[in-house]
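Much of our argument rests on the idea that a fold can be written as discrete symbols. Part of our work consisted of pairing the sequence of a single chain with a tokenised description of its backbone. The amino acid sequence and the backbone structure tokens for this protein are reproduced below.
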Amino acid sequence: MRRRLSSGLEIDAIQRHLDELLKLLAMPAQGVETGFSPAVDLRESDERYVVLVNVPGVPAEDLAVTLRRRELRVAGRKLPECAPPSARRCHRMERGFGAFSVEVLLPGPVRPEGGEAVLAAGVLRISLPKLAERRDSLHTIPVTTEEP
């Protein structure tokens, strides 16, 4: 015995739902959980690495910048401007919000004590001075003899 759907409209609706589900499953976990993932630029000059992170609407007190070796991490939380308990009505919400975390692997070692992070016009600018690499330094290693 064969079962038949009542109309082609149901098939179209099922296909749309499946397409939406597949898009959600294909998204990175961070995008699914928060809906907000800031864009990041990494620039380099002779003296510094500069990381720019787009965080519009995020106050400085809701941002945390940490550095471990060459791994720079920016975490924070962007609150929705139109929250449910609000008296305002939202007719459309496309801008993401929620907790976020981005990690950047810097190309070389840095001096953390000379770093700075400044938030202006929705862009967090993190500037870290490069640490002179020791590869070009000549080190003398004394040679000893082993007595029998």
